[in-house]
Amino acid sequence: MHLTDYEIASYLDHTLSSAARGRVEKHLAACSDCSRTLAVSFKTLHRTNSLPIPEKTLKRAENIIEQRTSPFFSLPLRLAATILLFVGAGIWLVSTWPGESSQYRTSDQSSPLRLLSPGDNEMVTSPPRLRWSAVEGATYYQITVYKNDGTVIFRERVPGVELSLSPSVVFEAGNLYLWNIQALFPDGSSVSSELHTFKYASR
């Protein structure tokens, strides 16, 4: 049996009880399908949270979500609110390049920042060595590593394009982790990579 959409949403929202959270994390450690579903949900939320979604779209979604305690509204209908948000944000996802306007940016709509290693969804058996592509004009790169619930467990700025994570960064066997990079420019602007995931397995 897999996790429900409600359980995944509540996990990402940090609204589960300690006992329920423990059950979800135990299931995620053993179920690759639910881990992938969680990663996709987190990636989507990560992208949409920084976008200017219209107030009208948000209000329509909230009106549906507010009915979640009513027996007349099923879970699929409540999930429609999430879909509504994603569809509403879709215009900006395909037309907006993450980051601010800058002399260091090109007119290309895609980000020049690429995550190289570990590969997306790769299994690692030790604290990974993170590598990414260089971006012209960037002075620093900010690395952020998240637990599968969105909690930041590591964040640091470096001038280069690779970093070996210290053994002091605690990874739990079976858990899924996400990471991304921000290229930082002298004028204060930045550009972000996509989120990639990796799963940690003990030797």
Topology summary:
Blueprint: H1 5-13, H2 18-30, H3 32-48, H4 55-65, H5 75-95, E1 115-117, E2 122-124, E3 129-132, E4 140-147, E5 152-158, E6 162-164, E7 176-184, E8 190-192, E9 196-200
Parallel strand pairs: 2-9
Antiparallel strand pairs: 1-3, 3-6, 4-5, 4-7, 7-8, 7-9
Helix pairs in contact: 2-3, 4-5
Q: Level of helix content? A: 25-40%
| Alpha-carbon distance between the two ends | 28 Å
Return residue spans where pLDDT drops below 50 for at least 5 consecutive residues: 68-81, 83-100
Separate helix tally? 5
Mean pLDDT: 75
Largest sheet: number of strands, sense, barrel closure: 6 strands, mixed
Structural class by secondary-structure content = alpha+beta
Strand content: 15-25%
Shape: globular
Q: Find the count of extended strands (DSSP E, 2+ residues).
A: 9
N-to-C series of helices and strands: HHHHHEEEEEEEEE
For the CA atoms, what is the radius of gyration? Answer: 19 Å
Key phrases:
203 residues, alpha+beta, 3-stranded antiparallel β-sheet, 35% helix, globular
Tell me what the structure shows:
The protein is built from five helices and nine strands. The protein is an alpha+beta fold. The two termini are 28 Å apart. A hairpin with a 4-residue loop joins strand 4 and strand 5 (152-158).
